[in-house]
Specification:
- The chain has about 325 residues and is of the alpha/beta class.
- The protein is about 35% helix and about 20% strand.
- It has 10 helices and 13 strands.
- Strand 10, helix 9 and strand 11 form a beta-alpha-beta unit.
- Helix 8 runs parallel beside helix 9.
- The radius of gyration is 21 Å and the shape is flat.
- The relative contact order is 0.19.
- The C terminus is likely disordered.
- Bound molecules: iron/sulfur cluster.
- Iron/sulfur cluster binds next to helix 1, helix 4 and helix 8.
Length: about 325
């Protein structure tokens, strides 16, 4: 009697949209263009996006990632990451004579502008976000005056301002929509004279990826989010799936997926955070197919046709984009 080689069936629902957003596309292309125009090395302050595969690919082409500018020789070409930087960093770069190419996502820059406007209007600003995250640290450093950072309702309750204080809030772009609404409600309940952005600062890409997971989680036994451990928006996708009652985990690299994580799973959702390239999704599917007879269903979702203009320093002298923008 020979051994059976039949693999158990597995339905895979591919969420849409998933993976790279317009801001990440822009940031990666900015570094590639900077390398083509200036040659290596091009210094990049902070991981250009929170994904090791993306950063390793750029490193192989000559990008050098640094956390602070004191690691960069004077007069270098420096790219600021999509997360944005504090004004202090901009000033340091100017003092050192660096050629700066700012790949801060325009939606992050919009938060900076909004925050400055509220502070100039004499309001105390609350930044809803996670202290220590690169975007939050950059936003704090772009706004003159004290800013309170809160990540949950309890931290709102702990703030010490009188009920008639003039308050305002902005948010990190990659939070969970529902968590943020609860925090905003808590702020408004304590300080009725609070202003916030007309449209929430949570960006369209974050919102769309979260909605896609919310729509699919109830159909599946498991949600796999391809994304780095330090990727805020990827972590929020895991939380959203769990909030829908579905088991979920983050998968930083396809190699970390093990067969026993699929025990009892007949249907799973695969999605990817805004900084995770599609190749990681494809490799994850290939790994699943090694153990299971996989049927893949590419699910419809919101089509994203947003593109951001490249930083002007890299707009010309380079072939048109080789990086598709939008739904992948
Ligand atoms: Fe910009 Fe949103 Fe992408 Fe962040 S997730 S880089 S804010 S488009």
């Amino acid at each position: 009697m020979g051994q059976t080689t039949e693999k158990p069936p597995l339905r895979v629902l591919l969420a849409n949209p998933r993976g790279f957003c317009a801001g990440v596309d822009r940031a990666v292309e900015t570094v590639e263009r900077a390398l083509a125009m200036h040659g290596a090395p091009v210094y990049v302050r902070h991981e250009i996006v929170h994904n090791a595969r993306v950063c390793d690919g750029l490193r192989a082409k000559g990008a050098v990632f640094v956390e602070e500018l004191d690691e960069v020789p004077a007069g270098s070409t420096v790219v600021f990451s999509a997360h944005g930087v504090a004004r202090r960093v901009e000033e340091e770069a100017a003092d050192a004579g660096h050629e700066v190419i700012d790949a801060t996502c325009p939606l992050v820059a919009r938060v900076h502008i909004g925050g400055r406007r509220y502070v100039a209007d004499g309001r105390h600003l609350i930044l809803i976000g996670h202290r220590g995250h690169a975007e939050v640290e950059g936003t704090l450093g772009q706004i003159d005056g004290p800013v309170s950072v809160v990540a949950n309702r309890a931290e709102v309750e702990a703030l010490d301002f009188p009920p008639d204080a003039r308050m305002a809030y902005v948010t990190q772009t990659t939070l969970s929509v529902s968590d943020t609404e609860g925090i905003i409600d808590a702020i408004m309940a304590r300080w009725p004279d609070t202003q916030g952005p007309d449209t929430r600062d949570i960006c369209f890409a974050t919102h769309n990826r979260q909605q896609a997971v919310r729509d699919l989680a109830s159909e599946a036994d498991l949600v796999i989010v391809v994304g780095a451990r330090n990727s805020s928006n990827s972590n929020r996708l895991v939380e959203i799936a769990e909030g829908e009652g579905c088991r979920a985990f983050l998968l930083p690299t396809p190699e970390e997926l093990s067969k026993d994580q699929l025990d009892g799973v007949g249907c799973l959702v695969v999605t990817a955070g805004a900084s995770a390239p599609e190749i990681l999704v494809r490799e994850t599917l290939a790994r699943l197919a090694g153990w299971h007879d996989v049927t893949v269903e590419e699910r419809d979702g919101v089509r994203e046709d947003v593109t951001f203009r490249l930083p002007r320093e890299v707009e010309d002298d380079y072939p048109p984009s080789r990086l598709a923008v939008g739904v992948k």
